[in-house]
Amino acid sequence: MPKDSGIGAASKRREDVRFLTGAGNYTDDINIYGQAYVYFLRSDVAHGKINSIDTSAAAEMPGVVRIFTGADFEGVGGLPCGWQVTDRHGQPMQEPAHPVLAQGKVRHVGDPIAAVVADSLQEARDAAEAIELDIEELPAVVNMKAALQEGAPKVHDDLTSNLCYDWGFVEDNKAAVDEAIKNAAHVTTLELVNNRLVANPMEPRVAVGDYSRANDESTLYTTSQNPHVIRLLMGAFVLGIPEHKLRVVAPDVGGGFGTKIFHYAEEAFCTFAAKKCNRPVKWTASRSEAFMSDAHGRDHVTKIELALDADNNFTAIRTETYANMGAYLSTFAPSVPTWLHGTLMAGNYRTPLIYVNVKAVFTNTVPVDAYRGAGRPEATYQLERVVDKAARELGVDPIALRRQNFISEFPYATPVAVEYDTGNYFATMDKLEEVADLAGFEARRKASEASGKLRGLGVNCYIEACGIAPSNLVGQLGARAGLYDAATVRVNATGTISVMVGAHSHGQGHETAFPQVVADMLGIDESMIEIVHGDSSKIPFGMGTYGSRSLAVCGSAMVKATEKIIKKAKKIASHLLEASEADIEVKDGKFTVAGTDKSVAWGDVTLAAYVPHNYPLEDIEPGLEETAFYDPSNFTYPSGAYCCEVELDPDTGKVTIERFAAADDFGNVVNPMIVEGQVHGGIAQGIGQALLENCVYDDEGQLLSASYMDYAMPRADDVPFYVVDHSCQTPCTHNPLGVKGCGEAGAIGSPPAVVNAVIDAIQSGGKNVLHIDMPLSPQRVWAAMQD
Amino acid sequence: MAKVTMTVNGRKVSGEVPGNRLLVEFLREDQRLTGTHVGCDTSQCGACVVHVNGKAVKSCTMMASEADGADITTIEGMAEADGTMHPIQQAFQDNHGLQCGFCTPGMVMSAAALLKDNPNPTEADVRHYLEGNICRCTGYHNIVKAILAAAGQDVSKIAAE
């Protein structure tokens, strides 16, 4: 029987009511009395030397408060990078400066040059047009391999080249991997592109800076997935504002998908300018501005080789990847192609030897950083594509080849430094075959062929690493932050509870799911518990939401804090019941003396904590509020198997997704409705990457896909209903809830399924096409079929 | 500047607007009805859909002055006065048809216009009708399901193999 409350219940989302009635409070809905507006004058060339900026005429325009340029940020910190990667020779990566407003040079289309603060946005925009810019255009580098050529124009003149780092993992394995590939019975090689994407949360980024002269306090309202991280980065590294004088608020946030993790120039600018102008300063991105200023995602060019022995066992994997960093290092950019990518290259398979080489490259494009999955989709895509290609080359069933090489015993230490705690890849594959109705495929293929279409089936597996941790390990790997999280459980006198969490909800439904956990632990109604998030002045600390970490990391902190609450409440109850603390049980909102009918209600205990007339004051303090920080001991490892069925019109190359099924193992599930919704959304983004989305620059570095007229977002009629199953559950062994995380799985697992299916469809039509790069547009598919 | 008067969610409102004031700006900035959202600048995303004289309109593509004298309904006008949500709003909650909530007002307003014209749509009808509304969170699955449910259809078997 499905539960109707607590852990495992499909509780309806309480936040929906405000979103559905127009009562949400997004950053752009915030207007502060007396606020001014900022318009950023951005570079329209990819690479150029700033000879002069003349703002004198613009400054005289109506409504202008003040115009800022890079010169106003001399002596102010630049935007910091939060992760330092060490290259294969033991040297730190090349790390360029990233000024808030361009200084000396512009390095990508959209790089902010000047900022006009005015009484109205219209006046700011008009004045920006009156700024006289003298920019000498320089040759741009867009293509990564060209950027590494001797004599290529340098994005940063003070660096030795456009190479950020050349990373080898595990460097000590390299010789053995080379040897294994040389001696293999079969080697399948695949060169592919993981296309550049734009995350495109529907809410564009917004920042409102405010400053109070009364207490010298700055407040930033911003569209962020992690307000405390922004406070840390902006306060400590950019503006030099101590934490107690800087409040960062991320209210309702309209989707993030990674791109709202990072600290952006506009946030620092609005905070800085509000103090300088002594007025609130607001910025709202237009969508085209978002395309040229939000960090992009993916953009890897990879060669992967898979070696097999004569019995089709995987013996080695070697990869070489070029990873685009864009013009500057965004907050976590260096970690994405390395520690979030190389460590996942074993996938679901027992491959004893793996070597991953990644060259991170600066180009005159928007910075690239984490986008839903961040490194893990890139790892999964190349691995699951090369396995499929190997099956085709060897003439074996692709599912059988996968099954033959599955990891079957846990814990399993991969040759790429991580240890999977649990999983059951056979179970998810079995479940997939069932829910996707693979047995019925041939009949469906015949039906498609009868109507002149080709039908293809693509299957793949994925493994993910969520809840990136522990802090002492990531510190060794170059992270400049800890990756724990925190929660405070504040029990009020009447028994209601506010839980202040460091995780941030921007679509994930924390306000509903988190109370389910606390309610279960205390045996009280979910409606008595409220989640508070997104405001550095209300919650103790937190590292925010990304990498499917919220429940696994912050949820664990919440469990630990609730355990402390129970421990103290039991002491109070034992006093009230005149019983031994060890005999007190918590159940159904009551504290009962075990084996008796003596009990005291939750509300009586909480009241006693705040009205301590009859209270063990000699043993414990009044009040009932506890905080816990939780630093996990390992990643969590969700896994699964995905299946896509496509129909292909051979006359046009148009691909239609006919069926899509996912069988995931997320460990324990708190709210299955929310989990399924997360998978649905991830699948649609993966289908978008595979068939539709592409961020395109021309050779001069002009961004050609800067609006929804040029960047193909998936629409309702591009996707089918999905079949999603999460009944295979191998709970995580090292966090108290046994949860693994579900936010990115869909986006990781779906692109290879789609591409495998399209290749299968083409092959069924007798054309020996082995690979097409994403997005598989009708033009690309049709062209491949003509060769 | 021109004086405009219109009925918004049953209430008569007026204001002085410059000629380039968009309806969505009039609603969000002047009327403080911030439930209507702006998600793009090319009239593609549909977060700003409202009803103008009963028809779904992207309020980012209409001047406030063009709406002079019109009867406007925004997302704030969909629920009953006592807070009871409109059946479409309720269906979105029941079927988890929203995540971050940003596209949601436009989705609900478009769905209401669809069901007014076509009270018993097929899945394909719904998907086609939503071509002007982009959602990045839900993969559309539960949005389509919610709209079919709001039309009174049995959605319990959708994608349940």
Automatic annotation (TrEMBL), chain A:
The keyword Lipid metabolism does not apply. GO terms for molecular function: iron ion binding; oxidoreductase activity. SMART domains: Ald_Xan_dh_C. SUPFAM superfamilies: CO dehydrogenase molybdoprotein N-domain-like, Molybdenum cofactor-binding domain. Residues 21-139 form the Aldehyde oxidase/xanthine dehydrogenase a/b hammerhead domain. InterPro entries: Ald_Oxase/Xan_DH_a/b, Ald_Oxase/Xan_DH_a/b_sf, Ald_Oxase/xanthine_DH-like, AldOxase/xan_DH_MoCoBD1, AldOxase/xan_DH_MoCoBD2, AldOxase/xan_DH_Mopterin-bd_sf. Keywords: Molybdenum, Oxidoreductase. It comes from the Bacteria. PANTHER family: ALDEHYDE OXIDASE 1-RELATED, XANTHINE DEHYDROGENASE. This is Carbon-monoxide dehydrogenase large subunit. It comes from Donghicola tyrosinivorans.
UniProtKB/TrEMBL annotation, chain B:
It comes from the Bacteria. SUPFAM superfamilies: 2Fe-2S ferredoxin-like, CO dehydrogenase ISP C-domain like. One of its GO terms (molecular function) is oxidoreductase activity. Residues 2-78 form the 2Fe-2S ferredoxin-type domain. The keyword Iron applies. Keywords: 2Fe-2S, Iron, Iron-sulfur, Metal-binding, Oxidoreductase. This is Carbon-monoxide dehydrogenase small subunit. It comes from Donghicola tyrosinivorans.
